Structure prediction request, 250 residues.
Amino acid sequence: MQRLGKASPAASSIGLGSVLKLIRPGSRPFSGLPRPGSPYAPPKAWVPTPLVTETVGGGWRQHDIFSRLLMERIIFLTGPVDDTVSSSVKAQLIYLEAEAPEKPIHLYIDTPGGSVNAGLSIYDTMTYISSPVTTTCIGQAASMGSLLLCGGAPKKRFCLPNSSIMIHQPSGGYYGQASDIAIHAKEILRVRERLNEIYQRHLTKPHSLEEIERLMERDKFMGPEEALEMGIVDEILTKRIKDEDAEKEK
Prediction:
């Protein structure tokens, strides 16, 4: 039995070199989230996905809840933004546009952020397709999540009364030769400038790039009212809005 207050051999053997090996060279995370497989990442529990059963023509068919919501043109972006989540969201966006280009797509966001590359590919897909994308924050839209929330269709960006929005500048890590470190430092500064330009384009309240850079300097947490005042969202919802297009079809 080990005495209290004394570090175990396994813990003491984790030095700076071991920590640096956990950093994937060339990656550009948008936040300080633990990487998958890292000993510092919290364990994930298995959560069963609810199933929906429908009776059709004397028979029945079964969908998982997210597939059923997709039929209603609803997409959920939850958890850290990584390549897997990004591929799923992009595929759903493109599929729904092909089904009905003129109808809106509803993207519900609850994410702490994640990879800048994965997040920007979702943003580019949102602006690339012809279907307007309505964004709604449920829970939190932090880091890259706030950019996706802000990047929704004009006057179609919402948040719920107890949601939280956080903005900040990108963060990342790299090790190697001094010349390579300088190259990656220059790249992350270019990415920061690009992200600030995207925010400036979508904010409904006018902000200069210098003002946005100053706001992004450190983690800035906002409630719905502050996000509305800044121009990240257009409205705070307390009740679900009826889809006007669906009402017309009826």
